[in-house]
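Thread: quick sanity check before group meeting

JM: Hey all, I'm pulling together slides for Thursday and realized we never actually wrote out the predicted structure for the chain we discussed last week. Dropping the sequence here so it's in one place. If anyone has concerns about the input, flag it before I start.
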Amino acid sequence: MTDRAPLHVCLVAVPGTLAMPVAGLYEVLTAFPVVAAFHDEVPATPPFAVEIVGHAQETVVAGSGLPLTIQRAVHEIERTDIIIVPTMAVEEGWDTGRHPEIVAWMRRMHAGGAMLCSACTGLGLLAETGLLDGRQATTHWAFGPSFRHAFPNIELCLDEVLVTAGEREEFAMSGGAASWQDLALYLIGRFVSPIASQAVAKFELLERHAEGQAPYLPFLPRTQHSDGMVRGMQDWLKTNFAVASPVTEMTCRSGLSPRTFERRFKRATGLSPIGYVHQVRIDEAKRRLERTDLPIDQISWEVGYEDAAAFRRLFKRIARVTPGHYRRKFATNMPG
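JM (edit): ok, ran it. Output follows.
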């Protein structure tokens, strides 16, 4: 990498782009001369040449109200190596068609060999190219439902903090707001070296979210459906999740056969009844781990699991961390 010309990186900024990921990506990808002074295996010559690009060379207002300076207009750029669309302000849903010039430019750059990346809600602009149809992607978990509605042909993997796709892995997408750090470290590891990526992470105190977004992901049940019976069972489960046999109880309340009830429930919610119960219980366990100092075995019992070992296994499968790890990471009442 150090014997070649720097890779040209375009950070896309439009009105409403958030300033922090733009500044963070810019600073990290150009930090090599400073980091190299403390690490012999990090190149002192920057391996990336980074520009902030947009509709025109101008200053735009970021989502927070801060000014963002566009260094170059996209119509002036005929070739680039990497395009990154950072986080963009999104309210109720993604409005398509706001930046057709940039979307068309991204398609042309991809056809010329460029890698296309997004951080958080920047996925929306990348998705508008149509190049992600039939592929996996990720974004901030909170915007998953609206993105699925806007781009039904993209398979969202909200548990993942970083997803790559394409025959040559020419697409890379990161999840929640701070996941631009994971994207930056991935690009450094891929195009410079894993050692350089590790050195930059240590120098800048960047955090790799190795467990993905799962620990941060609340259970967001699908409730906007037309099956009133299933919705009633969902409401009942909110306060009765800890009963001994919730699926049997819901089936009896529905008046349906077990097979028919399971089929209707899964069609409406996307989850089997027992899968849904597990999600509700683990979500409640997360809250108790965060807000109380109750022993984990007691929390297991209170949310409906008599076998604490089975609870721990299920918790790790869903949250990707153990209950103890989760408490250390998110507890609000821990001393110190």
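AS: nice. The domain at 7-216 is CATH 3.40.50.880 (Rossmann fold). The first strand starts at residue 7 and ends at 12.
JM: adding both to the slides.
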